[in-house]
Specification:
- There is one protein chain.
- By secondary structure, the chain is of the alpha+beta class.
- The chain folds into 3 domains: 112 residues, no CATH class; 72 residues, no CATH class; 93 residues, Arc Repressor Mutant, subunit A (Orthogonal Bundle), CATH 1.10.10.
- The chain contains 11 helices and 12 strands.
- A 5-stranded antiparallel sheet has the order 5-2-4-3-7. A 3-stranded antiparallel sheet has the order 8-12-9.
Amino acid sequence: MQGGASKYPDANIGLVPGLSGVMVVDSDDATEDEQIGALFGPTPLRVLTSRGRHRYYRRVSERLPGDLRKFGFACDLKTGNSIVIVPPSLHESGKRYRFDDCDWTALGAVPPPQMEGLRALTETHTSEGENPAQREMRDGSRKQWLNDLLCRHAMSCDTLDELLDVAMSANQSLANSGVEPLDDATVLKRTQVVWEETQARKLEQWVGREGRATLLGSELDRLCRLNPRIGPDAFALLAWLRIQHSARTSRGETFNITPKAMARDQVIYGWERRRYMRARDLLLLAGLIEKVAKFRNTRFGPVGSQYRLTNRRGGGRL
C-alpha cells in the first residue's frame, strides 16, 4: 500500500462501503441537501463533494434502492461493493473532496439511517405511467425482483423443487399484472443459484425474514464450564454474531466487535459495554471466534480490531 501511494501520489482514494460496514448517501444536488438530511437523519461523518455531500451511516440489513432518482432526488445510495471517493481526492472538476467539520474518527460513531422516511417515500410514490407490479421491483428489474423473492423464501423451503415452485408461480403472476414473465430457463438458473447459496450459508439476513443461527448444546456447555456466570451471555452474543456475520466469514471477510458502539445502539437490548466485552473475551477463550487483526491508527483514522467466526470445534473458518 505504501509503495503504491509513493508511486502514484496524485491518485484518488476509494472506499468500499460493504467492507467498512457503512452505507453512503451521495447527494448530487446542493438544493436538495436539507431534504436529504431530514430524510436520513443526522450523522457525524459528512464529506463535501463537487456537487453536494456524502453522508455516512451504519449499514442496515434492509434492501435499498440503488438511487432515489425515480422518487425525485438526485441521490445515490452506495452500499456493498460500490466505490466511494474520499478526501483528499481531487474531482475532475478541480474541486477536492473535503470533510464537513469532521474527520475519520467519526467513522466508528456513525448511526444507522432513519428508515421510516425512506420506507414511506418508496411505498407511497407512484411514478407516472408505471405499472403497479413494476413498482415492487427494485430498480425496475424483473431478474432482481425474482432474486429478492427467492432470497426471502429460501430459508422456509425444504427442497429445491419447493423453491422452484415458488419462483414459477410468482413469475407467472407477472402476466396477470401486465408484465412479461421471465423465460423458464432464467427462472430455473436463478433458483438453482439462490438454493446453492442458501445451502452454503452465503445469504445475509433479508428484510421480512427472521435471522437464524445454528448453535450446538456442546458450545453452551463449553462456555459455561469456562465461566458459569458469563457463559450464557457469550452464547447469546455468539448467536447474534452468526446471524450477522456467517456469510461474511464464509467469503473470507472479517468484522468488528465494538462494545462501546454496540451498547450505544442496543444491539442486544439492555446490555452495557462491559457485558459485551466479557462475552467477547469468553468467545475468544473458547475458540468460537478469533481475532485476525489488532486495532490500529491509519492516516485516515483508527481501524478497529477485526474478528471472524471459527468452526464449531474451535479453530479454522466456518
